[in-house]
Write a structure and sequence with these properties.
This protein has 123 residues and is of the alpha+beta class. Helix content is 24%, strand content 51%. The protein contains 2 helices and 8 strands, in the order ββαββββββα. The protein has helices at residues 24-36, 107-122, and strands at residues 2-6, 12-21, 42-52, 55-66, 71-82, 85-93, 96-97, 103-104. Strand 7 (96-97) and strand 8 form a beta hairpin. Helix 1 crosses helix 2 (107-122).
Length: 123
């Protein structure tokens, strides 16, 4: 499910979450490939991986420069796998413009939509 959230302080963020059945490593690899291929200015900022027994967690943080409005937006992706049950959460933020009025042109939603499309291909 994907939705836009107004955080109350003028910030807009987009969020997508889904539960799927699959292979954790394949899901992470496919998401990384699709996100990295989504635009020339998409950049992996950092990543973290954790495994405990049969539970795995992968966190990826990306940013992207949007030339159309001259700003950057971030995408945080968390993938949790237990056996073949996988939970994916993607949060896009920072796509607004302006100091007083943070007017969003949809950059954060565009980034989250990349994850949604990738997950739909995996399902």
């Amino acid at each position: 499910m994907r939705w836009l959230i107004n955080t109350g302080d003028g910030e807009i963020m987009a969020k997508y979450e889904e539960n799927i059945i699959g292979n954790f490593e394949e899901v992470v690899t496919n998401l990384e490939k699709d996100i990295n291929n989504s635009g020339v200015t998409m950049n992996l900022v950092d990543e973290s991986n954790y495994k405990f027994k049969d539970t795995s967690v992968a966190v990826r943080v990306y940013d992207k420069y949007f030339m159309r409005n001259g700003n950057r937006a971030s995408l945080s992706v968390t993938i949790v796998g237990h056996e073949n049950n996988i939970f994916i959460s993607a949060i896009g933020a920072g796509g607004g413009q302006g100091v007083i009025f943070n007017f969003s042109l949809g950059a954060e939603d565009d980034m989250v939509y990349v994850v949604e499309k990738s997950v739909e291909k995996i399902k």
